[in-house]
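Design a sequence for this backbone.
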């Protein structure tokens, strides 16, 4: 959660109630894999992206670029200025 806030310069802040269900869903569909490790008496879960997850990310990046381009076109159009 801190990493997301930092990477987005505080533009996106998400709580545990959003992050963990998303991580579990991504693991369930094969986009992530997890491993558990004991750290100072607590169990931590570390996630890594699978090949399937990387493929999904590339597809979503393409879709995002297409949507972003369409929005930019509308916003930059003289009719909407």
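Sequence:
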């Amino acid at each position: 959660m801190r990493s997301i806030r930092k990477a987005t310069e505080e533009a996106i802040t998400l709580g545990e109630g959003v992050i963990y269900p998303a991580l579990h869903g991504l693991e369930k569909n094969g986009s992530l894999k997890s491993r558990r490790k004991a750290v100072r008496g607590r169990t931590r879960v570390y996630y890594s992206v699978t090949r399937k997850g990387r493929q999904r990310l590339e597809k979503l990046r393409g879709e995002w670029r297409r949507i972003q381009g369409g929005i930019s076109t509308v916003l930059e159009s003289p009719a909407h200025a």
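Strands lie at 32-39, 42-49.
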